[in-house]
Every structure is written in structure tokens, then in C-alpha cells.
Design goal:
The complex is a heterodimer. Chain A is mainly alpha-helical. Chain A has helices at 5-24, 29-51, 53-62, 68-116. Chain A has four helices and no strands. Chain A is rod-shaped, with a radius of gyration of 26 Å. Chain B is α/β, with parallel strands linked by helices. Chain B is built from eleven helices and seven strands. The longest helix of chain B is centred in the N-terminal third of the chain and has 13 residues, at 69-81. Chain B is globular, with a radius of gyration of 17 Å. The chains are: A mainly alpha, B alpha/beta. Chain B: Belongs to the glycosyltransferase 2 family.
Chain lengths: 140, 233
Amino acid sequence: MPDPMIVQLLLLVAVAALLVLFVRNRHGVRVAAGKRVALVLFALVNVYAVIRPDDLTALAQAIGVGRGTDLVLYALVVGFLSVTLNQYLRFQGVDARVTELARTLAVREAEIVNRDRGLLVGPDARAVPVVPGVPDEPGA
Amino acid sequence: MEPLARQYDDVWLVIPVYNEETVIQAVVKDAMTVFPHVVCVDDGSPDGSASAIAASEAHLVRHPINLGQGAALQTGIAYARARAGARYFVTFDADGQHRVEDAAEMVELARTGAADVVLGSRFLDEDTSSVPWVKRIVLRVVAALSPAARRLKLTDAHNGLRVLTRPVADDLRITMNGMAHASQIVSYLARSDWRVAEHPVTIRYTDYSRSKGQSLVNGVNILFDLGVRQRGA
């Protein structure tokens, strides 16, 4: 019976690697490709595991997990975590874009409304972009 | 008294508003006795906040959807920055807990050129007994634990009353839409070279502002958002 340390180490390293990967460079083409390859591989391995469960159990015992299904469960947990994190970060990106859209809209509309209310008179001396970009020169 | 309206002609008060229809008019009226320029950002409130603001003398900016207090602050600053002659930007709460006199004193401090940013602090004065004790302890602990707040030697890490000078307002980008914006601003200041000063302020803890104030449980959400946000975002 091998030391159960092996699988524990593997899983912990996998979770840590995923965290770092997602938080660091999410937009990389290689990361995106990696995610797709990982998804296909995961599906293929699962198909194989369904067809030949004994091989899976042998592998599981080799790295210190009792049964093949336990190994699948662990892999699922890692997969689930990475999907959750991926979704969270993706939603943050969507959020940021929706915010910029709403902000631009709100400021445009406010300028019309407040001009009608008599609070804005004359053209404004400077136009300031509301979207994050190159900040104005201070004191320009 | 000097003609105050002229004295503060280059100051813009930015007030994020969410469901404050009962108090916002009084807060605006009070603020406008000193500051001629007030912009209220209605963060998509379902109540009558927007019409209450429209009936006041304040500029009204309306988010078409609810985005959060941080987003509303950034929008208000963006709107105020586009106005001619705006040099000082004051973030102010809509629930009436901030005193206009404190804001005016903070602007004067910024005007001396001694600081680029002036932050309000509840704890610079000796007498802090008006702050509820749970809040007092938690805020102190946050200020002591936060590396950014420590670096800036802040005594109060989450005060909504701030004065930003023009260069800071031009450079600051609040991307934390929710309540984490307060921590984001502090860590931004800690990483920057802006000179930051604190000024003692008194917070009026009324039953109303207490009921609107953010719960301490929300700190968990803030920590999570700050921890998992993308680096460089």
C-alpha cells in the first residue's frame, strides 16, 4: 500500500496551481487553450474510467487512494473549484464592462437632464473620458 | 461670514444615493448652504430618490441599473471632473451622518497644499464615545491590520468623508463596485505617492444612519472580493 501522501500532494498542488493560473493571467491564449484541452481530457478519462473501472482502481491504489471512484470524486472537486473560480472571474469582467456602459450612459443623460434643469450653462471647458484609459495630465 | 458660495466654487460634493428618498433633500439642502456644487448619483434606487434629487438644487446622475456604492462614487467623480473649474472632490454620505463643517475644514486643509488627499477620521479626536462600541473596536482592528492603512498611518480605514484634489481624482479608478471600494481607495493611496492627511470628523449616528450603515458581516464579502480580484485590474 503506497503512502496516501502522494495523492494529497497531487491534489493540493493542483488546487494551488489553478488558483495562481486563474488569478494571474486569465486572458492568455495559452491558458484558454489549456482549459479546453483539460476539459476534453477530463471527458476522455471519464469515458475510459466508465469502460474499464479496474484500470482506474489500479491507478488509484498506485497513488494512495482506495477506489477508482474516489479518485474520480477528487478530480471532480478540483474541476468544480476551477470552474467556480473561472465563472467568478468571468462575471467580474462582465461586471466591469456593464459598469462602464452604464456609467457612460448615466453621465451623458445627466448632462442633458441637468442642462434642462438650468444647472449647466455654456459649454464645458473640457471633456473628460469616463472610461478608464489614459488619465488627463494633472493641471493640463 | 464670507460669501461662502464663491469660496467653494471649485469644490464638488459627490453623494452616492441608494434608497434615501426620505432624507436626501435635507442632506442636499444642508450641504448647499456651504457648497454650491453637489452631484447626487442615484444608484438605480427603486424608491423615489431620483425625483427627490430632481426636486432639489443638486445635479442628478442616474445609474440605469443598480451597480453599488463604489461604482456610484466613480460615476459622480467622472461627472464632476467634466465640469469646468472643478478642483476639489468631496465624497459625502447620503444618510446625513457627515457634517458639512467637517467637509469644509477638510477642503481648507487640502487648499493649503499640505496634502493631496484628506481623509476623515472618527478617531483623531479624544472623544470617540459617539461611535458605537462594536464599530469602534472593529474599525480600529481593521485599521491596525490593513497593511495599506498601516503604511499610511491611518487611524480610521473606512471613512466615507474624503477630499480628493484634482490630480488624485483624475488618476483614481474605483473598480470595486460594491463596498470594497473603501479598502481599494486606501490601498491605492498606499501604493501611490500622494500625500495623505487625516482630519478629525464627527459622525452623527442617528437611528436612520445606523439602520443604513453597512453591517459588519459585509466585511466578509469585502475581504473575498479584494482577495480574489484579478491582479492589475
